[in-house]
Amino acid sequence: MMPVVAIVGRPNVGKSTLFNRILGQRKAIVEDFPGVTRDRNYAEVTRYEKPFTLIDTGGFEPVTEERMLVQMREQSQLAIEEADIILFVADGKEGLTPSDVEVAQMLRRVDKPILYVVNKVDGDAQEVGATEFYALGVETIHTISAEHGRGVPDLIDDILALLPEAAPLRDNEGEVRLAVIGRPNVGKSTLVNRLLGFERMVANPTAGTTRDSVDTPFIYNKNNYLLIDTAGIRRKGKVSQRLEKFSVIQALKAMERAHIVLVVIDAEEGVTDQDMTVAGYAYEKGRAVILVVNKWDRLEKNNRTVSEYTETLRSTFKFLSFAPIIFISALTGQRVNKIMGEVEKVSAEFNKKISTSHLNQLLADAERGHQPPVYQGKRLKLFYITQTAVRPPTFIIFVNKAEGVHFSYQRYLGNKIREAFGFSGCPIRLQFKDRERNE
């Protein structure tokens, strides 16, 4: 499991700039579907010798002048609960403020590594002014300019030195890991209890590999499964209940270990921004996804309700067009028994391998049906396709100019692969590589 580094501090001290600087890039939109990527508060940083999850607490809640101290206290408390390392960022140009002092006093009671960072220190004059932050009673102050990169390499070195080793993922051969994720109060706990209460043998529950989930091995149709239950999280205070967006952190950790993700949605409330965020991460991580609409028994229905709700979900989750949708009531048990059957189907699709000969026949047919685009005055030529991985199904297509394959044509080929071979519930990955044509 990746350790977590959280950035805390007042608004406008440069937390997001530091977030992007450590990440090494601005979060780029890599799909043209809404909801897949957006301005994020989370990112996996993998460009250093130790990977970690980076969190920017700045955008979780709207902040007003009257509420500033309260919001800082809440966000910092959440970071304290979830993070392995905390970066406390202050504004070197504005100087030490009462808000900084209050948070620093709280952090002194925490038994976790804390790095105190003074941002917007662009030169010697600001360097001298930053010495006032030693009044916080700390031994070391990191003076940086997140915008220009000044001092950031040294800060990253100290972060890496403090990072705990990532916990290894359990890798029982043949075991399918199933994560139940969703916002608080959508019915995850009830669903988990229903799933484990059906006719299957349940092994002894054991503590998960992270501090905030419970893993339960069980057997269904003679196959081994591991249920990763984010509903079993023990919240450490009312703060966590008020700021539910931090449940995204827990979902991220669960998805890191899962093969298949059940995204639970409240039928009454409909799809929220947080549902989109969590589902977007599942897609980006290459996890198989099943959309589970819970509390279906509470809706007044007619003969068009299912089709209209399905159409709404498909329109909202365009990037999850491959995901099966199941309407259930975890409370009454309605259609819950269909979930594991769907999990079995999706698991088989997730592990499916297509022969190279069948793939290349498909590629030839697709090219005849819709020619590749013209790039730099020449029409692209697709030479060869092969499947290189499962979970998620991944394909490499060799082409004369890989950079010229427009996203729309990539989607066309992806759709052709789905039409021919299915892959229900699974994202598929297409990679294009250059190959010079032999004359």
TrEMBL record:
Keywords: GTP-binding, Nucleotide-binding, Repeat, Ribosome biogenesis. GO terms for molecular function: GTP binding; ribosome binding. GTP 2 binds at residues 182-189, 229-233, 294-297. PROSITE patterns: G_ENGA. Residues 3-167, 176-351 form the EngA-type G domain. The keyword Repeat applies. GTP 1 binds at residues 9-16, 56-60, 119-122. The keyword GTP-binding applies. GO terms for biological process: ribosome biogenesis. GTPase that plays an essential role in the late steps of ribosome biogenesis. Associates with the 50S ribosomal subunit. Belongs to the TRAFAC class TrmE-Era-EngA-EngB-Septin-like GTPase superfamily. EngA (Der) GTPase family. This is GTPase Der. The gene is engA.
